[in-house]
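Before a computer can learn anything about folding, someone has to put a protein's shape into writing. The three-dimensional part falls to structure tokens, numbers that each stand for a local backbone shape. The protein below has been through that process, and both of its lines are reproduced in full.
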Amino acid sequence: MVYFLEEGKDVEACWVRLEGIQDGKMYGSVLTALRQDFGVKEKDTIYFGMTEMEDHKLACVWVKEDE
């Protein structure tokens, strides 16, 4: 599960199949459609990383590519 965060939008999560690691970032294919427009659709390849939450649990978070 990868969380998508972008200013002005609600946090949204979707399933992503991990395919590898490049330049210190994980990447994979989006398996479920997002309800909001993050510029990402089902079957796209995205980059994501890990972050530690306030409760000390780890979460995968989308890394938006530079436009």
Summary: The chain has a mean pLDDT of 94. Strands lie at 2-4, 12-14, 16-22, 25-30, 45-52, 58-63.
